[in-house]
Design goal:
CATH architecture of one domain in chain A: Orthogonal Bundle
CATH class of one domain in chain A: Mainly Alpha
Structural class of chain B: alpha/beta
Oligomer: heterodimer
Helix content of chain B: 40-55%
Structural class of chain A: mainly alpha
CATH class of the largest domain in chain B: Alpha Beta
Strand content of chain A: under 5%
Number of domains of chain B: 2
CATH superfamily of one domain in chain A: Nitrile hydratase, beta subunit
Number of strands of chain A: 0
CATH superfamily of the largest domain in chain B: Nitrile hydratase alpha /Thiocyanate hydrolase gamma
Order of helices and strands of chain A: HHHH
Distance between the termini of chain A: 31 Å
């Protein structure tokens, strides 16, 4: 059974939002989440696939409502809690 | 689980998480800052553009790029700086086939070579529609391809990420490599534009 992230081919999401300001992050916290992901991944706390899996396990309603880096944050919280690390 | 994380404003959740991670010895402030410094300084479509320009200028490099993207990136000193370990596959546009890259499941993408991914690449609309209606999606980007040009859509994953090699524009035969590279855009490297 596919999970909520598996949206290839689904309809109903509207036109592609084209607005682009060239900025990778739109708040400082987004940059910190990105950095935490890279450092913890680099340290072997989790693999890329484990991180993706943690994103893909987010309950469907929360997944669809969350922004991109909010999903990353949720995945980091989940993985660290499951490992009893932080 | 703390049980309270979702009730805090998101910036406060991040601050708390970062403090816990640092207290647990899993990261330092300096390491976190360094990741961002390297992203801002190093990750850029200029890198992918250099690979494309070299391929346009050097047929032998073009063949090596198509055969082994990682090795070809390494030749220009553009190896995977984060050690993410993915396979880089270069796909070349021809009059018969245009290539378009998406990550339907998430947002997998070679950040160091293409620069931080644009918001639209990560949007639910692009992820869902690029594989179903690629021609319509390209039209939204202002790209109308000839009806006879097939569109190959490549779905990136954590293990395999893509770089589109646009077709070399006509009339650039004498152009130096640096000038060729300047023609190549981030959208061109993803396949939502031509060069």
């Amino acid at each position: 059974m596919s999970r909520v992230h598996d949206i290839g081919g689904q309809t109903g999401f509207g036109p592609v939002p084209m607005a682009e300001d060239g900025q990778p992050f739109h708040a400082d916290w987004e940059a910190r989440v990105f950095a935490l992901n890279r450092v913890l991944g680099g340290r072997g706390v989790f693999t890329t696939d484990e991180f993706r899996d943690a994103i893909e396990r987010i309950p469907a309603e929360e997944y669809l409502a969350a922004g991109y880096y909010e999903r990353w944050l949720r995945a980091l919280e989940t993985l660290l809690a499951e490992r009893g690390l932080a | 689980m703390t049980g309270t994380h979702s009730e805090l404003p998101v910036a406060a959740r991040v601050r708390q998480l970062e403090e816990r991670v640092i207290a647990a010895g899993l990261a330092t402030d300096a390491e976190l800052d360094d990741v961002l410094a390297r992203l801002y300084d190093g990750a850029s479509p200029v890198n992918g553009a250099r690979m494309v320009a070299r391929a346009w200028a050097d047929e032998s490099y073009f063949r090596r790029l198509l055969a082994d993207g990682n090795a070809a990136a390494g030749e220009l000193g553009l190896g995977d700086p984060y050690g993410l370990g993915y396979r880089l596959k270069a796909v070349a546009n021809t009059p018969q086939q245009h290539n378009l890259v998406v990550c339907t499941l998430c947002s997998c993408y070679p950040v160091s070579l293409l620069g931080p991914s644009p918001s639209w690449y990560k949007s639910l609309a692009y992820r869902s529609r690029a594989v179903r209606k690629p021609r319509a999606v390209l039209a939204e980007f202002g790209l109308e391809l000839p009806a006879g040009t097939e569109i190959a859509v490549w779905d990136a994953s954590a293990e395999t990420r893509y770089l589109v090699v646009p077709a070399r524009p006509a009339g650039t035969g004498e152009m130096p490599e640096d000038d060729l590279a300047a023609l190549v855009t981030q959208r061109g490297l993803i396949g939502t534009a031509v060069v």
